[in-house]
Queue: 3 jobs
Job 1
Amino acid sequence: MSASLLLRRASRKTSRTSARGFTLIELLVAVIAGLFVVLAAFLLSKGSTRLFGEESRVASAQLNLRIGIDRLRSDLARAGLMSTSNVVADPDVCPKPAASGFATRLQSILYVPGGSYAATKALSDPNGLNPDSIIINGNFAGSDYYLASSVEASGAGYTIYLQRNNGAMQRLLSVGAGADSGGDLQALLDATFPTGKLLRLTNNLGSSQFLLIQSVTMGATINGLAPQISLKLSPSAKFITTADADKKCGVTGFGLGATVNAVQFMRYDLRNLAAIAPWAYPDGDTTKFDLVRTELNPDGTEVPGCGTSASPQQIVAEYVVDLKFAFSIDDGALTTGAYREPNVIAYPFNDATATAAAGDVTAGGGAARPQRIRSVRFQITTRSRDGDRSSAIGPTGSGLLRYLLPNGLYARTRTDVGEVALLNQQSAAY
């Protein structure tokens, strides 16, 4: 056999060897090994996804908490602003509203222990909670007061004509490039002096009376267009006459130089608004409670529209499960004609003395002293949307770490405590 033939046979054998594929055993081993790698990657990914989802829910609960705290803090800071802290005891409210009148509960802070319990009872009971509510009174429409040029009585009520040439009014009239009769300005007037709300009328001696706004319109004055506020006939405004022995109570002269501003009531409580805001409650979830801000009428009822699709109720924070309040109160004794040393005591949550001091001023007995509250502390607890734990941690009630849901799982919670100084009444000594 020649050498060339041997070389060709060797070359063909090498080609057949190099072209040979995997055996069945080798293929099975490779597939199984690959499956183990994929399974390990899947398990790692699943655990990471679950962890990230849980942390995202906790972060969302924390964000809800911060949003709710910021809004509540802002409104608490306005408690008593351009109003009165205690309509019963305030010496500068003169004349006093009738006992059956609209403003008998006119006070800076009205604390209602357990005020949110009835709306959240289904889940508050299993978690040992008794959430509160609070009503705040003050000027939430702005921080300006407006000067009157005259206050006049008529058969249908009263009319207050406002001065045009002062800083507050010029800022108001500057809306809409000076278009005094434009719709934008009318909308702003309606927001500044809301129909059906209280108006504080303060004379040049510092005496205030509270009346009800009928409407506000633009009217002609000698200096141009200016707002005119129509007031309801009841309650009646007081005008000082020569027959009055007390020359402080009421409107002096024609009311020139008197100041006016709106006064409103805001309530914070926990409730479920699925009936009027289904977009905020996935699948009609009735186990979700939110921190809700609601404007009230002077008689304590909710403003028209509450409970309907056009409700002015505002969801301040979602998935809130507990709301508590505590107060720091100046208990210093009153002394006449001498310096009074303040004695501010920070009372704990659920303290009976502080609860009475922040109670209804019309209840009698003189225990309610909201004008002596110097700061409000609040505790808000939010939960994650879904439960991700099967057991509880820590105590039930205020300060709980996990919140029991109807499906038997526990949602994680976040609690924050804050404090707001009531600067509008820091010098109230009565």
Job 2
Amino acid sequence: MLHRSSTITRSEFEQHTGWVFKPEGACKGDVCIPLRDNSGDNPNDKSAMLDLESLAEQMGMPLISSPQHKLWALGPESVSSRALTSASAPPLSLPDLAGKPFDLASLRGKKVVVYAWAPY
């Protein structure tokens, strides 16, 4: 999930991630993660503001931020052990639009957003 602030309403978080806040914590399907509430006592208050850094830590979700660009990237959750455990990419070289090889390592030290999509 990409967001323009370090805080988000409960409603936006639920809409963009599929997690639902209940008294027992953040839930998705049969999985619930207990949370230290950082936004008041009422989990039904959909307008309550949540701190992305706190949520990421509690839910085991990676969070990358660039406050000067007003951009925060959160997720995915690692409850199913299928998420990446680090932000290190493997060696990768692919042809660019001109057909010349492009090595991903040439971007080391720079901020890079890698967007992947799968139709499943």
Job 3
Amino acid sequence: MDIKAILIWCVIGILAGWLASFFVGGGGLIRYLLTGLLGAFVGGFLFKMAGININLGNSYVNEVVVAAAGAIVVVLIARVLA
């Protein structure tokens, strides 16, 4: 991986975490990044297992939407466990 790919992942993670915070509340920059990056894995897994393939016209937008959905799931599960 190069630096550009890592920065793109971080930006997608921050955006996804920020979007998730609108639905479940709370957060800060580090929390957005962590929930967004973890949400990307969870969202990708869930969408693949459900057979859902979204196409919004831009691959980055698709990734942000999937990561945000996964981040929402991650935060909700964390709240249930806490």
